[in-house]
Structures are given as structure tokens and as C-alpha cells.
Amino acid sequence: MTSARDKALLGVGGVAAAGILAWRTMFPWIGYDLEFIRKGKKATDKIGEDIKKQRFLIDMFEEKVTSCPRKPFLIFEDRIYTYEFMNEQAKRVANIAMTWGFKLGETVALFINNEPSFIWTFLGLQKIGLGVAFINYHIRAKALLHSIKACEARALIIGLGEDLFHAIDEIRHDLDIPLYLQGDNIPDGYKPWDEMMINTLPSEICRNVRAEFHLFTPCCYIFTSGTTGLPKPAIVNQAKAIGYSKFFTFSEISKDDIIYITTPLYHSAACLSLFSTMDVGSTALLRRKFSAHHYFKEARRHKVTIMQYIGELPRYLLTVPESSEDGIHNIRIAIGNGLRMDIWEKFQNRFKIPKIVEFFGATEGTAAMANIQGRVGAVGRMSPFLIVFLGTGEPGILIAAIPITYSDGFYKGGKEINEKKIVRNAFVDGDAFFNFGDLLVQDKDYFVYFKDRVGDTFRWKGENVSTNEVANVLTGLDVIQDANVYGVQVPGTDGRAGMAAILLKNGKQVTESIVKQIYHHCEENLPSFARPIFLRFIKEMALTTTYKQRKVENVKEGFDPNKIKDELFYIHPESKSYLPLTATFF
Predict the structure, then answer these.
(1) Which PROSITE patterns match (predicted)?
(2) Are 499 and 486 in contact (CB under 8 A)?
(3) pLDDT at 360 over 60
(4) pLDDT per residue over 157-182, tens digit each?
(5) Are 105 and 218 in contact (CB under 8 A)?
(6) Residue 89, SS3?
(7) Whole domain around residue 339: which residue ranges?
(8) Closest by alpha carbon to 109, among 121, 120, 98?
(9) How far apart are alpha carbons 228 and 232 in whole angstroms?
């Protein structure tokens, strides 16, 4: 028989169930809130615990070296690098850096490709409390020099590769810091890094060396793309690095996971994976460069469980011919940003990805959001129970409150560039918010979708391209009088491809020499994603009544030679030039 106590419990349970049912009736989306609160609380609790204990990123790594020394930390080109081995190399780096006498928080810049030495060099510098600037290895000339100087680097470590060496050698005479070069046959003006590593003992550094570490101590600097001005070093301090290390909590990450990293290590996306790996003691599969044809083959071979994507990566994977093995793998979740609505379900269904977590944020931002429920196309969710936002379907600019951890600003390099990102006195006098510069819209369930970019920019290969910046680079050439830059849609691709309507000086005619000159100028001064894919040579620049360049008509005409009488060209990297775009090629 049922006891009085059991009846009472059943009664309470019935009331609770009725209460939940009532809430779900009034607020059908509350289930999304409950799931987010459960997973979000887990992440915030872990962040709070690490902040309270002052458990910094390097501490996370060293803990795993102690608890699981022989476990694979990194898999690279079919070689396994254990936590213990990575630590041995990091200790050599730390002992070399100790002799430099730099102060806590001062900066050393890394110009290294995707390879294990990038990671152990970063860890070694962290052991003695130095900030590390992750220099984009695709930039050259002025942008490269500016990046090294903007982060106030006290030294530069250059990785293997003739391309990296030549890039630095071109600007070497403008650098007044020691240059350490990996490899053999080190030329004058450089110090032999590999030789120093071999001749340095891997003695552990006393933790007291970094006793003055605090939450605002720089961990690393990650640079903006440089398409809205020159690259800016965004500050990732120790507090933010702790936050990065917990981001994969939304994927229920554990020590048994294997995370696939194909994005450049200088990018914040790769940092999320790498820092999370160190936190829980999992394994990272690192690739030198993303390859759509090899992606799932390697994922299968190494039993990858978490894939991270960004921008165009899923679309590139869909261009590979279909195979009966497409859905055969161990991947349980894909997490990233930039997966557009038009290919979301096609990507998920073809490759049988059990769950997709799309997130939204900015390296220098003060907040982020995540779509943990897998709502197609959404970048996150903002429930009225969790935050005050907009009405359904009403677009608005995303801003986020600035916490105390941003006391040093968003970027290294002065108050002016920090102020451009701040909205002051938005709701009450004295408040301050970070302006993401993105227009978002929400649906009836409070899922949030990317709508447009504020300002004269377009999106290509997952990056935002400033039309003004590209135009300024183009007009730096003597033969160009003016340039009108805009984005055009290309069927089957994400975002918009860059196109430039160019007015040559003094009525010059277009020649093979001129288009080659433009190609090399763009190659030297713009990152690959910002270089115009199409060129249109015009006879006069169309202006509005307020003397602004007209873009609307150009955008509508696109790059169709059947609509355009001007000479058209398309980029052809194999020829190191632009080639004529005829109706046949179109």
C-alpha cells in the first residue's frame, strides 16, 4: 500500500509537473532556457573556480604533464607528441628566454606556421610570464612590420620555411629587436634558434618566476584581419584565456576527445580548441593547412570526435565528390562559426554530424553567444529571461557591457583604437558597451541570426573585408587614379567576392603589364581573402550627389560580361596575374 509520505511526495511531484507544464504552455521556449542554464552554469562555474584559484592556462598544461605525461597532446603529420615531450621542449624555450631578462608581461612575437614548435614555444614563454603575439604568417611588407611593432615585441622568433624568412628579411632593416630563426645555415643578422634549443637543458622553471601573474597579465595577442585598417593586436589576458579554455564545455568535452584543428594557430578559433585541450587533457589533431579532400580521411584515421569549423570550411567539404564513407567517422559534434543557413542541413545530413553548435563573438569582444540547440542558421539565443533584447524580427546592433577585465582596453597600442569600439552612455550616464558592429535579428523563440555588417564591408571566406581599405591599397599604385571596391555574389559560394572598378590615370589603356602590376601589389599588401577576385576597368568614376562612389548599380551588374561593356578580368594565381573575363569563361 502507498504510505502517507509517498502520497505526499506524489502530490508534490504532481504539483511540480503541473507547474512545469503551465510554464511550458505560457512560454513554449522555456525548455531552451533550461538547457542553456544547465550547460552555461557548468562553464561559468568552472571559469569562476579557476579565477578564484588563479589557475592560469600554463598551470592547466603543467597539471596534465604531471597527471598524464605519456598521453598524446598533439598529433601532427602522423607523429604523436605527448604532454611530456611538449613540456620538455617548452622548458628549453623558457630557459632560453630567461637569459633575455624581459619583464613579466612583455611581449615576444611568433611568426611560425601551423606546427608543434608554435605551441611549445608559446608554452615556454608562458612559463616565465611573457605575453606572446601570434603574427599572421600570411601578411607581408607594411602590415607585417606594423604588426610586430604594434604589439611592442621585444624579440621575434621565426619558424621554418623560405617564405617566412624572406618576408622578415624584406623588413629586417626596419626592426631593432633580436631575430631568432629556426633551421640551418643562419645568415648574418639572425640568431640560430634550433642550435640554442639543442644546447639548452630542459630544466624546469620555478613557478615563483611567474608569482606576480594576475588576471590582467597578457597571455597572447591575436590580430584582427587588417581589412578595416592595419592589423590590430587584440589583448587576450589570462582571465580571457581561462574563458577560452571553457568554451568547449558546451560540447561536453572530456579527456577522451580528439579535436581537429585545421585553422591557423594565430586565429582565435584555433585557440579555443587548443586551450580547451589543455584544460581537460584531451588530444588535438593539428594540420598544417586545411584540405577538403583529406579532411574526413584524417578524421577517420585518427578517430576525431570534435570538429571545429569556421566560415567556408563546411562549404569546401561539400565540394568534394560524395562517397559511401562520408558518414563513417567518430565525430559527435561540430562547433564553430560562419555556417550559413543555405548549406547547414545539407552539410549535417551528408556527413551525418550528430550535433552542430554555432557560436558568435569577436576576439576582442566582451561577450559571446552560442546556439547549443542546433537551430538551423542561428548564431545564438537571447531569451528575455536571460537578457533584455529586441522585438521579434526587429534588427539591432549587438553591443555588450565592458567588464573590469578590460581595464587595459581591447587592443594594445593606444586609447584611440580602443575608443572606436566603445558605445558610451547607451542607457544611463557613465555606462560603456563594446560595439560588435553587427546587425542581428531574432525569431519568436529568441534565436538570433546574423543579418548584415554595419559599415562599408562585405564578407568573404569567413572574413570581413573593408572596401575602403582595399581601395586605399589599390590607389597606392601610380597607374591607378581611383578604385571603387564592392562585393559581388558568386553562385555556390558563401558571402561576396571582392571586385574593384578601377579608373586608370591619364586615360591609360589596360595592358598585360598593368594587370600583373595590380596582382603583385595586392599580393604584397593585402591578405589573400581581401584581394579583389574581379577587376573592372572604367572610363569615369560614377559619383552620388554628395560625391560618394556609387556601388548599387555595379553590385547588380556583378561580373557578367553580357551586362558590362567595360574590360573585365579575373584573378589567376597560377599566372600571377589577372586574365580577361570573357563570356566563355563567365
Answers:
(1) AMP_BINDING (PS00455)
(2) yes
(3) yes
(4) 999 999 999 999 999 999 999 999 99
(5) yes
(6) helix
(7) 49-442
(8) 121
(9) 10
Q: What is the pLDDT of residue 466?
A: 79
Q: Quick one: average pLDDT of 246-263? A: 94
Question: Is the per-residue pLDDT at 405 higher than 80?
Answer: no
Does 519 fall in a domain?
yes
Please state the φ and ψ torsions of residue 438, each to the nearest 5 degrees. -120, 140
Round to whole Å and give the CA distance between 325 and 319.
Answer: 15
Q: How many CB atoms sit inside 10 A of residue 226's CB?
A: 23
- Calculate the CA 438 to chain-centre distance: 16
Torsions phi, psi for 39 (to 5 deg): -75, -35
- Distance, in Å, from the CA atom of 509 to the CA atom of 537, rounded to the nearest integer, reads 9
Closest of 235, 257, 202, 244 to residue 84, by C-alpha: 202
Q: Write the single-letter amino acid at 40.
A: G
Residues 191, 193, 198, 204, CA torsion sign: positive
* Local confidence band at 519 (pLDDT 50, 70, 90 cut-offs): very high
Q: Are residues 474 and 388 in the same domain?
A: no
Instruction: Name residue, grid cell 555606462.
Output: 431
Mean pLDDT (whole number) for 335-348: 88
Residue 453 pLDDT class (50, 70, 90 cuts): very low
Is residue 34 assigned to a domain? no
For the CA atoms of the chain, what is the radius of gyration?
26
The closest alpha carbon to 308, from 258, 344, 361, 377, belongs to 258
Within-domain flag for 13: no
Give the span between the Cα atoms of 37 and 75, in whole angstroms: 34
Q: What is the pLDDT of residues 208-234, one digit of tens each?
A: 999 999 999 999 999 987 655 688 999
> Considering only CA atoms, which of 536, 529, 531, 530 is closest in space to residue 560?
536
Assigned domain for 27 exists: no
Q: Where are the beta strands (DSSP E) in 375-513?
A: 380-381, 396-401, 422-424, 432-442, 447-453, 457-460, 463-466, 480-488, 497-504
Q: How far apart are CA 251 and CA 30, in angstroms?
A: 21
Residue 143 CA, distance from chain mean position = 18
Q: Are 269 and 307 contained in the same domain?
A: yes
Beta strands of 291-346 (E only): which ranges? 306-310, 333-337
- Mean pLDDT lowest among 76-80, 94-98, 477-481: 477-481
* Residue at 333: amino acid letter: I
